[in-house]
Amino acid sequence: MLWILISLFFCWLIFREFRSRWFTRPGYDGPDPRPIYKPYLAVLIALALAFAWPPFHYWRIERLLSAKATELADPRRAEVHCNTVFDTFLDREYLSIGHADPKTGKIVLQYPWCARLMDYLDHPDRANSEEITSLNMFTHESMHARGEYNEAITECEAVQRDYRAAKLLGVPDKVARKNALDYYQNIYMLKEKIGGFQAPYFSVECAPDKALDEHLVDSTWEAR
Ligand SMILES: [Zn+2]
Predict the structure, then answer these.
(1) What is the pLDDT along the chain (224 residues), one digit of tens a residue?
(2) Which of 21, 51, 98, 130 lies 20 to 30 Å (CA to CA) from residue 109?
(3) Are strands 106-109 and 79-82 parallel, antiparallel or unpaired?
């Protein structure tokens, strides 16, 4: 919002330049006869665009992620919001990397996790563990938007759909399989050992042919 206001301020300065040249100013006989100083105008336009770019960029990312989260949360509708640093200060759940309301389908991804997810999509073939975690975070919150409250079940639903989520986001098939299995084998399975605040997200029943296996046709596990 702050960026938009700054951009609008520069738009107003541009408008002011044209207004003074085209219209009679109060107390004067006619418009300002001086020509518009083009370098000044170019700087104003560049600043207006530079400050408008981040909100526009994030608006596009949120639209993309909302559409894909809605596909994952089928038949429910999901809406993704990427928190800015300022949003984070006002967010009561600022300690979690993301959260979602199963009633409304509204998903909030904490700063800078939207950017991290975009980094993952830029180079999924050489994703680091944080970037792979950002994929699972997106799938996990989509499962909450689908209506699930229980963290262990939500996480297990996500683990099984990470492969689907990566493909929906445009990751090539083989890489999507590898990333989804990487999360399950190297990050999810560690939660049991780590315990603490990770413990509620883990279940021994979250494994092939165990109680939480949904036997999805495109399950991450089927890719093994
Ligand atoms: Zn959760």
Answers:
(1) 788 889 899 899 988 888 877 776 667 767 776 777 888 889 999 999 998 888 899 999 999 999 999 999 999 999 999 999 888 889 898 889 999 999 999 999 999 999 999 999 999 999 999 999 999 999 999 999 999 999 999 999 999 999 999 999 999 999 999 999 999 999 999 998 898 889 999 999 999 999 999 999 999 998 54
(2) 51
(3) parallel
Calculate how far, in angstroms, residue 179's C-alpha sits from the geometric centre of ligand 1: 20
Instruction: Give the span between the Cα atoms of 159 and 140, in whole angstroms.
Output: 8
Instruction: Give 28 Cα–ligand 1 centroid separation in angstroms.
Output: 65
From the list 221, 222, 220, 204, the residue with the least C-alpha distance to 212 is 204
Q: How far is the CA of 151 from the centre of ligand 1 (A)?
A: 5
Cα(56) to centroid of ligand 1, in Å?
Answer: 28
Overall residue count recorded for the chain in this entry: 224
